[in-house]
């Protein structure tokens, strides 16, 4: 299955997405990746839902084949704007959205601001930064962010001699990945450099989280505004907070929670079948029924 490549404009940026198509007039499914990732990380997902949904995957600004930002703040509202512009291009509402990490946060913003456009949200580990970030005051975060941005201006992107070397780095950073998935993510996540080496496609400034983030009081208001059904998925071995430690997420009116054993932050790669089944069951249970004759595997244990 080869998706078709397309571009659109948002906020004066040329952004990219993949259209995986779908059989007949299938309901839309939008896939939104996480930080330093790219849209082709959803290939297996698109294949799993292709018979049930018309699948699209967006390269967020600064990622994949989308343009980088001048100024490089990369704030949540800007990413949400891109998803809103993308929805206006696709023109298929309401849509179900699956977002991982940053993509999950962006999907929640979109569902809160444009409730008429979103039928359901599946949020995979998209409810906050690592715990170490939360321990810092705003002043500390502001200084750290400024120092890292200034340092990044004089730092050349790391170059890899081969895709194999870059894949090894991918595995080192994400040890739960299979060799095949690590190779796939690397293949679509690299650009060829002028010297013949390889560099990551994402903007290096994405390594520096914006200092403001999502304040607690705004997070509560945001999640309370999400009226569509929402499924939150966490990997049991992840650094992401358990929902019991996230009162803001409890504000979601129609929220379901699934914790997948044996999975880290990239739950959908670590336990692919379990996540697909959980999503399929959630959508069916909330009126987003798959076509007759299309089913899933057994429920995850």
List the SSEs and their pairings.
Elements: E1 4-10, E2 13-21, E3 28-32, H1 43-49, E4 54-59, H2 76-90, E5 95-100, H3 102-113, E6 118-124, H4 131-134, H5 138-152, H6 163-173, H7 179-188, E7 190-192, E8 198-200, H8 216-224, E9 230-235, E10 255-260, H9 267-270, H10 272-285
Parallel strand pairs: 3-4, 3-5, 5-6, 6-9, 9-10
Antiparallel strand pairs: 1-2, 2-4, 7-8
Helix pairs in contact: 2-3, 6-7
Give the structure's gist in a few sentences:
Helix content is 34%, strand content 19%. The protein has 301 residues and is an alpha/beta fold.
Verbal overview:
With 301 residues, this protein is of the alpha/beta class. The protein contains ten helices and ten strands. Helix 2 (76-90) packs across helix 3 (102-113) and helix 6 (163-173) crosses helix 7.
- What sort of overall outline do the alpha carbons produce when their principal axes are compared? globular
End-to-end CA span: 30 Å
Q: Might you state the CATH topology name?
A: Rossmann fold
What percent strand? 15-25%
| Tally of helical segments | 10
- Counted up, domains total 1
Evaluate the radius of gyration.
19 Å
Secondary-structure-based class equals: alpha/beta
User: Can you identify the CATH superfamily?
Assistant: Alpha/Beta hydrolase fold, catalytic domain
What is the CATH C level class, in words? Alpha Beta
Largest sheet: 8 strands, mixed
Contiguous low-pLDDT stretches (5 residues minimum) are 291-301
Helicity level: 25-40%
